[in-house]
Amino acid sequence: MEFNTVTLALFFAGGLRLCVPVLLAALGEAVSERAGVFTIGLEGLMLFGASSSALGLAATGSPVLALLAGVLGGVLAATVLALGTVFARANQIVMGIGFNLFAIGVTSLIRQVWLAGAPAAGSMRSVSMMKLPWLSDIPIAGRALFSQSPVFYLAVIITVALWCLFRFTRAGLLLRAVGENALAADAAGHAVLRLRFSATLFTGVMAGLGGAYLCIIASGGTFVDNMTAGRGYLAIAVTIFARWKPLRVMIVAVLLGLLEALQFQGQYLGIDIAPSLLMAMPFVVALVAWVMMGRAGAAPGDLGRPFLRGSGR
């Protein structure tokens, strides 16, 4: 019985660790999509965050500064993306896909030129594990919920903060307004382009931190080509599936993290399912989300549409 309890605790703890990159990126995507910007380039933003964190770790040796470098990389990349989609009014889907391909090439070049001879990473304990006093001693839940990375706790705090933002604040109402009907928001005197630009930069912050987590915490400071492996696209699907609501985003991301954890610990839990099938499950959820988006009317009304002042749209 003790072995089963420990195994169950390890399974839940692993699922929560694995969900963090997708959760962070999906929260950022929820904000930009609420503002009407379809950030298809989320995968590229995560890649830039991961590579920037690896550069930061090689330069400073500090995992904390490396995470901050990942955030900075995500913001700078999001600035380029936002200038094209928000101000230059480029097609958001086309530019996003092109941006993702660009990110794969640039981050691979960064690895070959600046990270090939990087020194071995030191201890990541300061960012990979934070045990909350007393709570971490609770059976099963203590190891799963209260012995996690500080970034996990930060993601939970951001989730609750965004829920409060959209539900109770004027800023959240303005973001939803520019996403639902940008022309009406502009007529009311609100700066649509500035709000959309800020929302996209926030997406860069979250995606950059998600990519940095993937590189620094999940991979021990090692960056490899295309290490996001579709997690940016998966985060977009999570956002849509959760109907752009932060608390639902967290729930769906955790469920996907648990599905991913089954690949590694399912056999110890007595689950006899082929690992290849378990690997495909999150992307099945992604396909369902895309279908739901096409059929549902719950999406922001101006999602993916460039703002053209004075247009008759």
What does this entry look like structurally?
The protein is mainly α and 313 residues long. It contains 13 helices and 2 strands, in the order αααααβαβααααααα. It has helices spanning 2-34, 42-60, 63-87, 92-114, 125-128, 141-145, 150-168, 170-180, 182-187, 192-218, 231-241, 246-265, 275-295; strands spanning 130-131, 147-148. It is globular. It starts with a helix and ends in an 18-residue tail after the last helix. 45% of the residues are buried.
Number of helices: 13
Shape: globular
Major sheet summary line: 2 strands, antiparallel
Structural class: mainly alpha
Helix fraction, binned, reads over 70%
What is the helix/strand order? Answer: HHHHHEHEHHHHHHH
Strand content: under 5%
In short:
The chain contains 13 helices and 2 strands; from the N terminus they run H-H-H-H-H-E-H-E-H-H-H-H-H-H-H. It is mostly helical and 313 residues long.
What keyword list fits this structure?
2 strands, 313 residues, two-stranded antiparallel ribbon, globular, mainly alpha, 13 helices, 72% helix
Helices and strands, with pairings:
Layout: H1 2-34, H2 42-60, H3 63-87, H4 92-114, H5 125-128, E1 130-131, H6 141-145, E2 147-148, H7 150-168, H8 170-180, H9 182-187, H10 192-218, H11 231-241, H12 246-265, H13 275-295
Antiparallel strand pairs: 1-2
Helix pairs in contact: 1-7, 1-10, 1-11, 1-12, 2-3, 2-4, 2-10, 2-11, 3-10, 7-8, 7-12, 8-10, 11-12, 11-13, 12-13
